Amino acid sequence: MAERREWTVTGMDCAVCTAKVVRAVERLPGVSDVKVALMAERLSLNVEDGGAAAVEDTVRKLGYGIAPKGQEAPRKKAFVMPGEPTNAEVGDHAGHDHGPAGNHSGHGHSHDDPADRGKPWHRTGKGRLVILTGALLGAAWGVELLTSAELGYWAFLLACLIGVAPVAKRAFEALRMGQPFTIESLMTIAAIGALFIGAAEEAALVVFLFAVGEVLEGVATGKAREGIRALANLVPKTALLEVDGQTRTVPADALAIGQIVLVRPGDRIPADGTIKEGTSGIDESPVTGESVPLAKTAGDAVFAGSINTEAALRIRVTREPSDNTIARIIRLVEEAEEARAPTERFIDRFSRWYMPAVVVVAALVIVVPPLAMDADWGTWVYRGLALLLIGCPCALVISVPAAIASALSSGARRGLLMKGGAVIEAAAKTTHVAFDKTGTLTRGKPVVTDLVPASGVSEADLMAVAAGVETGSSHPLAQAILIRAAGSALPSTNARALPGKGAEAVVEGAMAWVTSPRHAAELEGIDGFALRRAAALEEEGKTVVAVFRARQPLGLIALRDEPREDAADAVRQLKAMGVSSVMLTGDNARTAAAIAGGLGLDHRAEMMPEDKLSVIRELGPQVMMIGDGINDAPALKQAGVGVAMGSGTDVALETADAAILRDRVTDAPALIRLARATMGNIRQNVALALGLKAVFLVTSVLGITGLWIAILADTGATVLVTLNALRLLGYNPAKERK
C-alpha cells in the first residue's frame, strides 16, 4: 500500500540538484510521483511500505542531508578541508556537484551550503577554501621570490595539491556515483595535468581562481532566494490572544480559526482574518505591494503580515497559520519551478551533450596535432586542459532558472504571482488580453440604483422576493440586492444559479426568478413596458434584472457597478505595448457598450460561459484572460495565461496560472512587462554564456588564452549570468518603458 511521505532535504542549491534527487529516487521500486521543492528543501513522493529507508539512503549517497518532515535534517559541508572529519549522517561526500543521477550528464558547481546562510563569506566553507588557497599561493610566490625558481616550483606544486584536494575528493565521490562529467572532475584533471607539464604556478593560480569563483557564485545565487525567505519573516512570531476579555501573548503559529486577537497600532497582523471591531488604516505593502494604507473597518478582511497603522483592532482568525496568504504565496513561488519554461527544458537537453562533446574535443586537441602533425605534446596538452575548464555549461544551465527565480520573487513582492517559467514565457508572448467585466474592470461591488415595481407590486415586495431568490449567492449582483433588502428576504428553498442568465428558487412555496430581461422575456416574465424601461436604464450603463414568478412580472431592479479608477489607464498601457484588449461579459449589450466605450476597448456582450470559451479559442494561444477565477474558470483554463483578480482568494492562488493580488487593472500590463523583461534577461544570459564559451573555446585552441583565463571564463560567466538575473529583483514592472 503506497502512502504519501515527505522529507526535508538539505544541501540542494540549484535546479540541477533537484533533478538529480528526482532522477535517482524515482528509479527506486515502489516509488512514484516524486516532487522536490528547492526553496522549501522538501521531497515528497508516494512510496510503498518499507521503501522509505531506501529513499533516505539514496538521497544520502547523493551527498545531501535528509530527515522526515518536522525533524531537522543534518547539514553537510560544502567543502571539507584536508584532514577535517565529514558528517557521517550524510555520507563521506565532501560536497556535491550539479551532475545527475543515472544517465543524466553531470555538470555544475557546488553552491552555497545552507548551514552557511547569513554568515560572512570568510566564515563559510567556500570562504575558508579561498583564504587557504590564497595564502598558499602567496606563500609560494614568496618562496620563489626569496629563493629560486626551482624551490618556487615545489612550493607551487604543494599549494596546488593542498588546494585541489577537497575538489578532487568531491570529484572522486561523484565518479563513484557514475557521474564522471562534473566541473570538479575536469578541474582536478586540468590541475594535475598542468603539474605534469611543468605549469605548477598556473595550476595553483587556477585552483585559487576556482575557489574565488565558487564564493562569488554562492553569494550571487544566495541573494536570488533571499526575497522569498524574507516573506516568511513578515508574519510576527507572537500574537495577543483575547479570551474572556483578557489578553495573553501566544505563539502566532498556535492560533486557531475563530479566535480573537488584539492588534495594536504599529503591530503586524498575526493571521488572516476579518475585523470584528475597530477602524484603522492597514498597510498591505508587505503582502500585496500596495503602497497606500487602506482604511478598513468591521467585516473587512485583513492579511497576516500587514501593518495596523492607526487604531487598535480586534480581529477574528479565519485561516490556520500554515494556510495564511503569505504562506500560500511562499508555497506558490517555491513550487513554481515545476512549471519549467520551454526554453529551460531545451537548454537542459542541450547541456546533456555539451559537456561530453567538449571533453571529446579536448581529447582530440591533445592527441591529433602531435600524432598527425608531429606537434609539441606539451603545448597541445596545455591547450586541451584549458578546453576542459570551459567545458562545464553551468552558466548556461543557470541562466534560465536564475532569471525566473528573480522574476517570481520580484513579482511576489508587488502582488504579481506567476506559477513558474512556463507561465512567464507564455505571458511574454501575449498579444490579446480578454477582461471579464464584473469584479475585474469594475469594482465588483454594484449598488441598487433604481426599483421599477410592476403594477400592484410594492418596492418592498419586489425586494423581498428578489432577496429570497438570491439568499446564499456570492455573486456581486446578488450581494447588492441582499444589502438593499436589509434582511427582508422571504424564506426560500431549492435555490440554484442559471449560468449566464440569473437565478431561481422556490420562494414561499412558488417558483421565482431573478434573471436578465432577455431571459425573462423568454419565460414571459416581463411585459413590453418593462422591456422598454430596461433598455433605457441599460443605455445609462446600468445592469437590469427582472424579478418574476411564473408568467407574473414583479418588476425591475437596476444596478450599477462603477469601473475601477485605473481601468482606462490599463487599457491605454496595453495598447502602447502592442496588446489589444476586449471585454467579455454576460451583461446586456447596451450596458457593456457604455462601460467599454468609456474605457476605450472592444467588447462582447450577453455571453454565456461557453461563449467566452469560444472567443478565447478564436483569439488564439497568445491570449491572456483576466477574470475572478470562479465564474470564468473554463475561459481562464483555455487561455494561454489565465489570470485571477482577487486579494489572496483560494481560486486566485491555486487554480489560475497567475494572480493579481492588488485588484489593480494596471497590474495586467505590469505582469506582461515583467514577463517580457524576464525573457529579455534570459536571452541576454544565454548569449553571454554561449558567447563567452565560444570565444574562449577558440582562443584556447589557438593558444591565445591559458588555464587561468579558462577558469575565469567558466566561473566568471556563471557569476555574470547570475548577477544579470539578479537585476530583475529591482525591476519595477509598474513603470512604463518608452
Question: What tags apply to this protein structure?
Answer:
Alpha-Beta Plaits; elongated; about 750 residues; about 45% helix; 26 strands; alpha+beta; seven-stranded mixed β-sheet; Calcium-transporting ATPase, cytoplasmic transduction domain A
E-strand count: 26
Distance from N terminus to C terminus (CA atoms, Å) equals 60 Å
| Total count of helical runs of at least 4 residues | 24
Share of helix, binned: 40-55%
In what order do the strands lie side by side in the largest sheet? 14-26-25-24-15-22-23
Radius of gyration: 32 Å
- Mean pLDDT across residues: 81
Proportion of residues in extended strands? 15-25%
Find the structural class using helix and strand composition.
alpha+beta
Largest sheet: 7 strands, mixed
Unreliable stretches: 75-117
- The 3D shape can be described as elongated
Description:
- The protein is α+β, with helices and mostly antiparallel strands and 738 residues long.
- Among the domains are: 1-74, Alpha-Beta Plaits, CATH 3.30.70.100; 76-234, no CATH class; 238-323, Calcium-transporting ATPase, cytoplasmic transduction domain A (Distorted Sandwich), CATH 2.70.150; 447-560, Calcium-transporting ATPase, cytoplasmic domain N (3-Layer(aba) Sandwich), CATH 3.40.1110.10.
- 47% of the residues lie in helices and 18% in strands.
- The chain contains 24 helices and 26 strands.
- It has a seven-stranded mixed sheet with strand order 14-26-25-24-15-22-23, sandwiched between helices. Strands 6-5-7-13-8-11 form a six-stranded antiparallel sheet, with no helix packed on it. It has a six-stranded antiparallel sheet with strand order 16-21-20-19-18-17.
- β18 and β19 (510-515) form a beta hairpin.
- α4 (149-176) runs antiparallel to α5 (183-196), α4 (149-176) packs across α6 and α23 (667-702) runs antiparallel to α24.
- The model is unreliable at 75-117 (pLDDT under 50).
